[in-house]
Amino acid sequence: MSEPTGDVRVESSRFRQDYQRLTEEIGKVIVGMESIVEGVLTCLFTGGHCLLEGVPGLGKTMLVRTLAQCLDLRFSRIQFTPDLMPADIIGTNVINEDPHTGKRAFQFEPGPVFGNLLLADEINRATPKTQSALLEAMQEKTVTVAGKRYRLDPPFFVMATQNPIEQEGTYPLPEAQLDRFFFKLLLEPPSREDLSTILDRTTRAAEPVAAKVMEKALVLGWSKLAREVSIAPHVQDYAVRLTLATQPSSPFSTDLMRRYVRYGSSPRGAQTLVLAGKIRALTHERYNVAFEDIQSVAHPALRHRIILNFEAEAEGMVSDKLIDAMLEEVPKQVRQTA
After folding, report:
1. Are strands 288-289 and 230-231 parallel, antiparallel or unpaired?
2. Domains identified in the chain and CATH numbers
3. With a threshold of 0.70, does the pTM exceed it?
């Protein structure tokens, strides 16, 4: 596998070919999750992190493991439990004795966070203190232990799974932790046809296995290409106004946002809309971001960045309904005032 060439059209065509091969290999194992796979790959190629939410048994962990099989990346997994400690994630200093001199010295033993593709399985079963151990790694791609900073090897991609918060034995993720996830994807139970296909693949002698299709250098190369996709000022302004519309105090906010939202999206929401829109443009054979690209990624980009108030929780309002209304009410273009 060679590096991307200098011609944008050639690079874009090759990206789509690699993207299609990757989705096909994942599709050999994962059934009926086309939109979820698309969201996961968008996170991968933008350098973001992904949060998968769904009840147990829907294939969240299998999806992450299959992605690891398709990529030449160092894979590590952390099973989050209530007794998990931060040192179990980032590592710790241990005392080692030199067998020749007998001298003792502290030596850092890296934890599982020192990988390329990290599966944080059932992340909301650990306490908030342990969940927060990932904050620095997810944002700054570094880990600090005993005053010393260690840099993580790129690419660093966290895929976290969580059960619905209503289930027993779960802890809500802190807002700062949620905001560091590029997308939040919701998994639904499989359809009748999909469930039948799952049984065909998993109850016979040989189960399907995904092949490796992409190396680390190519993942980084395509991530760089995605950032070179152009976006017109009026399309970028639409992403800005959508982000501001989630904030109840903003003049761009909608009536439902002002009624049901306590806090809206941070600037990371706007960054997510633009970067995800660039990936979607590439996969749809375009070299600039369109309004439809921004609209298509609005739900996974913003749903976890909208903090609802007590009234919303009492009335059963969910962030996706607010985003639906926002996309209908916020105009695509507005006249600039002098």
Report:
1. parallel
2. 1-227 (3.40.50.300), 229-331 (1.10.8.80)
3. yes
User: What is the pLDDT, as a whole number, of residue 23?
Assistant: 92
Whether the CB-CB separation of 73 and 54 falls below 8 Å is answered with no
CA distance 274 to 301: 10
pLDDT digits (tens, 9 = 90+) for 226-248: 898 999 999 999 999 999 999 99
How many other C-beta atoms lie within 10 A of the C-beta of residue 158? 23
Contact 185, 143 (CB under 8 A): no
Per-residue model confidence as pLDDT tens digits over 109-162: 888 899 889 999 888 888 888 888 888 888 888 988 878 888 988 889 999 988
Provide the residue type at 40 as one letter. V
What Cα–Cα distance (Å) separates residue 99 from each residue in 105, 113, 222?
12, 29, 47
Phi and psi torsions of 119, nearest 5°: -95, 110
